[in-house]
Amino acid sequence: MKTLLHACCGPCSLEPTRLLLEEGHDITVYYANSNIDPQPEYAHRLAELRRHAASIEVGVIEGPYDPAAWERGVGALGDRLAERPQPQAERPTCVSELLDDENRQKRCRACYRLRLAETARVAAAQGFDAVSTTLSVSPYQFTQVIREELERAAAQAGVRADFRDFRPFYDEATRRSREAGMYRQDYCGCRFSVEEGKRTRAFLKQQRAAQKAERAAARQQQERAEGQARAQKEAERRAYADAQARKRAVLKALRAQKEASAVAPAAAGRKEHA
User: Which residues bind [4Fe-4S] cluster per the record (predicted)?
Assistant: First the structure.
């Protein structure tokens, strides 16, 4: 099947391109990401994506970079939503609780819609059978919303939506991209996600530190328990050894007493004969 694969960056494309090629798809990557800010960041991600695509002999089509259109369609919505933040957990336990996910989902949906609609239109115009996207690699994206918007865009353009939940391959994509020395951005792309990325990294760092402290405390507790068990076992061993020593001492005394009792009559008989 001839598929136009919307891609957000090189690292997120690693596993989707591998899987689709292994299934026999004829894929071309489409880079439609007017959300990425600033422009040098956009160019850096595109260059990394082109390097990966060239290494697997897959073509790349760059869509128009129009951040002004993105600002009109998505940025303005994000600004309005930011003025009405939703209540958040006092002590968040996950990223979705940390960030304003209710409003963020609305903003991200508008962003997905803009980029995937563009991808689907290009797919229809250039004779592709289907459209897909690498956005669903990330566990930090809204996977169900991505699916809904991909299917919406494909239906409107008259092409097939080939949605894949690539999240199970996120760790492998991370490993491969680091191993290959690929550029790995630390935020999704838009101006809103810059601050969200910083907060997420700080939160995850705190979580890792807390988990590390918990593991250290658990190890200390286990070591104390093991030490106490060894001490108890040693005390029991010594108590047993002491008991055995006392037992041997008593038996030895009894034997000595018995021997002494046997010797005394014999000595008395010798004296009488003398």
Answer: 8-9, 108, 111
Q: Which residue carries 């999240």 as its tokens? A: 167
9 known member of a binding site: yes
Return the domain boundaries, the chain.
2-189, 191-259
Report yes or no: 161 and 124 within 8 Å, Cβ to Cβ. no
0.70 exceeded by pTM:
yes
CATH architecture of 2-189: 3-Layer(aba) Sandwich (3.40)
Tell me the one-letter amino acid at 12: C
Are 119 and 7 in contact by the 8 Å Cβ rule? The answer is no
Helix (H) or strand (E) holding 130: strand 130-133
Q: Is 188 annotated as a binding residue?
A: no
C-alpha–C-alpha distance, residues 269 and 192, integer Å: 115
Left if phi > 0, otherwise alpha if psi is -120 to 50, otherwise beta: which for 232?
alpha
Q: How far apart are CA 130 and CA 161, in angstroms?
A: 6
> Is 111 known as a binding-site position?
yes
60 bridge partner residues: 29
Q: How far is the C-alpha of 50 from the C-alpha of 31, rounded, in Å?
A: 10
- Per-residue pLDDT of 188-239, as tens digits, reads 999 999 998 888 878 778 888 888 888 988 899 999 999 999 999 999 999 9
DSSP 8-state class, residue 75: I
Name the phi and psi angles at 241, rounded to 5: -65, -40
